[in-house]
Amino acid sequence: MRPRPSRLAVCIAILHTGCVSAMPALSGGRLTPEQRSALHVGASSRIPFGRLRPESAPENLDERFIAIIRPGGIVPVAMARYGLARRLDLEVTISGASVRSAVRTALELEPGGFNHWPRIELMGGLGAYGGIVQDDDGDSTHYGFDVPLVIGIDWASLYEFWAGVRGGLERINGTLDPTAKTLASEFSGFTWRAGLVVGIALGFRNFHGLLELTAYYETMHASIADRDHTLRGISLIPAFSLRWRI
Asked: In percent, how much of the chain has pLDDT > 90?
């Protein structure tokens, strides 16, 4: 009878996917209240489709290029937000080997309250991020910006719902390691992405569980080994987290 893997082995397997870029928004139904903090701990995943989906055993330059810049997998996520003012909060997020810093603001559409309709806000933000990707095929760096715009609903701090659009631009540079069939090759490119985001949170007062899904349509232009490439496809970023407001 084969022994079960230890908890340590499972943790190592999860952390090994830290090269994956799967940055969630986790907008929530409202901004972080003024002079309060919100801490998130969870995970996210990137699920690519079509030409964006890497081969299980890439061999040529094209397949190895897609495998390193558009991987799939699960990464741990940690996020901290702080409410600077009634309609302004700051954020720092770590997702795998990527870090994002963002600022968000909101337009209050309905003040809400226990004896009124839910609180409704139009929330927008701008985030800048960067990170590294390293695996057996090579290494790269990436950086860019992320812009979500969502309608958030908060019902008496029990239920939250948000839905809207999300887009951004990303730049990537790196090197593919040499193999028996290919020489080392440098590459560079950029990606436009736009899509929809939807999420829900359930909890009581200061503790909630969040579920979110982002669906992107991506267009990437890149140059590798003196050849130009254009890749288009759909990717999904599901995420969950536990949030504690203090």
From this structure: 52
